[in-house]
TrEMBL record:
The active site is at D65 (proton acceptor). PROSITE patterns: U_DNA_GLYCOSYLASE. Keywords: DNA damage, DNA repair, Hydrolase. It comes from the Bacteria. This is Uracil-DNA glycosylase. One of its GO terms (molecular function) is uracil DNA N-glycosylase activity. One of its GO terms (biological process) is base-excision repair, AP site formation via deaminated base removal. The lineage of its organism: Bacteria, Pseudomonadati, Bacteroidota, Flavobacteriia, Flavobacteriales. Coiled coil: none annotated. Belongs to the uracil-DNA glycosylase (UDG) superfamily. UNG family. It comes from Nonlabens tegetincola. InterPro entries: UDG_fam1, Ura-DNA_Glyclase_AS, Uracil-DNA_glycosylase-like_sf.
């Protein structure tokens, strides 16, 4: 399994990536992907760390459980691809943003645009 990360993250995580446990972990994950249906697609496991350089990160949102339905997980926490029904956790996030910031509830649950420093409109 090739880990796709922005170079800044590779540098920040170098000690962990080079640690023996990390190779064991990637071997385990690779085997799970070979033997089972896993989400997100393997190429998107570290999508957040590949798209945003370390020095540009302002906020990190961490979820408890990954989405487990076909087409849901796109590699970003709570995000789903365009056209996918919003899972309950994402609905709650959007409700809070609507209430707190008076932003309209978005049609798309794809949060990729949050990575480019633009709050949804």
């Amino acid at each position: 399994m090739s880990i796709k990360l922005d170079p800044s993250w590779k540098e920040m995580l170098r000690e962990e990536i080079d640690a023996p446990y990390f190779e064991e972990l990637t071997d385990y994950v690779r085997k799970e992907y070979e033997e089972h249906t896993c989400y997100p697609p393997g190429s998107k496991i570290f999508a957040a760390l590949d798209r945003t350089p370390f020095e540009e990160v302002k906020v990190v949102i961490i979820g408890q459980d990954p989405y487990h339905g076909p087409g849901q997980a796109n590699g970003l926490c709570f995000s789903v691809a365009d056209g996918i029904a919003h899972p309950p956790s994402l609905i709650n996030i959007f409700k809070e943003i609507t209430t707190d910031l008076q932003k309209p509830y978005p049609k798309s649950g794809n949060l990729e645009r949050w990575q480019i420093k633009v709050f949804y409109s």
